[in-house]
C-alpha cells in the first residue's frame, strides 16, 4: 500500500449492496477491508477485487460485539496506517407481524441493526479523531420513512440510524468529522430475493416515481460520493435512493 492510498472498512461486505460497494471502492483506489461473518463470502469478494486489479483483505467480524469491532479497527490502522471510511452495512432483515415478535427476534435485530452501527462508528471515530481525517457512512433504508407492514422493528431501527446519523454528526462536526447515511429503496440482491417474491418487488417498483427498483451500484455510488471530498460540507444527512418513492406519496 502506498502512503496516499485510502482505506475503507465495509461491514456486511460478503454480498448484496456491501459486496458491490466493496468492488466500487476498490475501483476508486481504496484498499478495502471486507468484513462479515460469512468467511466464504468475504474471501470471494476479495478475490473479485484482486482479479480486477484492486487491493482488499477479508476479516471475520461480528459487529454486535463491541470489543471485536474496536480490535478490528485497531488492526486495520496497524496494518494499513489509517482508516478513511467505515461503511455500516451489516444488517438483518426479519419480517413478522407484531404479535409474532419474540425476545430473540427483537434482540437479534437491535444488536446488529443498531448496536453494531454504534460500535463501528465509535471505533472509527476513535481513530479518525487522532489522525485528523475520515468519515462514516451508514446504510439505512427507505422503510425508515414509509410504513411497511410486518416490518415494525426493522423499520424502526432504520429510523434510529437516521436519527443517530444526524445527532452524531452534530456531536463530532466541530472536529471536522463527517457522519452521513444512505436510505435505499428496494434493491434486488440474493438476500432480498430470499425474502420477497417477484410480485412484491413489482409492487415496490410501482411505488417509486421512476417505476423501478434501485440498483446496488446506485447505492454504492452515493456512498462513495458521501465519502469523497466532493461532499466535504455534507454531514448529518440521509440521502434517499428510492426513485422518488417517499416524495411520490
Brief summary of the model shown:
This protein has 249 residues and is an alpha/beta fold. It has helices spanning 16-27, 39-51, 66-80, 103-131, 152-172, 190-193, 198-207, 216-227; strands at residues 7-11, 31-36, 55-60, 85-88, 135-139, 178-184, 238-241.
Topology:
Layout (H helix, E strand, L loop, with lengths): L6 E5 L4 H12 L3 E6 L2 H13 L3 E6 L5 H15 L4 E4 L14 H29 L3 E5 L12 H21 L5 E7 L5 H4 L4 H10 L8 H12 L10 E4 L8
Parallel strand pairs: 1-2, 1-4, 2-3, 4-5, 5-6, 6-7
What is the H/E order? Answer: EHEHEHEHEHEHHHE
Give me the count of strands: 7
Structural class: alpha/beta
What percent strand? Answer: 5-15%
What is the CATH class name?
Alpha Beta
Give the CATH H-level superfamily: NAD(P)-binding Rossmann-like Domain
Instruction: Assign the CATH topology.
Output: Rossmann fold
The main pleated sheet reads as:
7 strands, parallel
Secondary-structure arrangement, i.e. CATH architecture = 3-Layer(aba) Sandwich
Across the major sheet, the strand order is: 3-2-1-4-5-6-7
Overall tally of domains: 1
Overall 3D form: globular
Rg on CA atoms, Å: 17 Å
Low-pLDDT windows of residues: none
Straight-line distance between termini = 48 Å
Mean pLDDT: 91
Amino acid at each position: 500500500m502506498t502512503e496516499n492510498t485510502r482505506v475503507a472498512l465495509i461491514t456486511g461486505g460478503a454480498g448484496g449492496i456491501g459486496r458491490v460497494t466493496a468492488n466500487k471502492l476498490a475501483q476508486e483506489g481504496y484498499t478495502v477491508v471486507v468484513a462479515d461473518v460469512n468467511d466464504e463470502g468475504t474471501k470471494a469478494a476479495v478475490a473479485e477485487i484482486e482479479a480486477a486489479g484492486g487491493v482488499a483483505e477479508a476479516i471475520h467480524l461480528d459487529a454486535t460485539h463491541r470489543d471485536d469491532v474496536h480490535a478490528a479497527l485497531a488492526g486495520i490502522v496497524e496494518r494499513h496506517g489509517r482508516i478513511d471510511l467505515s461503511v455500516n452495512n451489516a444488517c438483518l432483515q426479519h419480517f413478522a407481524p407484531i404479535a409474532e415478535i419474540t425476545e430473540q427476534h427483537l434482540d437479534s435485530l437491535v444488536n446488529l441493526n443498531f448496536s453494531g452501527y454504534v460500535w463501528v462508528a465509535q471505533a472509527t471515530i476513535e481513530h479518525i479523531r487522532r489522525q485528523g481525517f475520515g468519515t462514516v457512512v451508514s446504510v439505512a433504508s427507505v422503510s425508515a420513512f414509509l410504513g411497511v407492514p410486518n416490518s415494525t422493528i426493522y423499520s424502526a431501527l432504520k429510523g434510529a440510524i437516521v436519527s443517530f446519523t444526524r445527532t452524531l454528526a452534530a456531536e463530532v462536526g466541530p472536529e471536522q468529522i463527517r457522519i452521513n447515511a444512505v436510505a435505499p429503496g428496494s434493491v434486488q440482491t440474493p438476500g432480498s430475493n430470499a425474502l420477497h417474491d417477484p410480485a412484491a418487488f413489482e409492487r415496490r417498483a410501482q411505488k417509486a416515481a421512476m417505476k423501478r427498483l434501485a440498483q446496488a451500484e446506485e447505492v454504492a455510488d452515493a456512498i462513495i460520493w458521501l465519502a469523497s471530498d466532493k461532499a466535504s460540507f455534507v454531514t448529518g444527512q440521509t440521502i434517499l435512493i428510492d426513485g422518488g418513492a417517499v416524495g411520490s406519496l
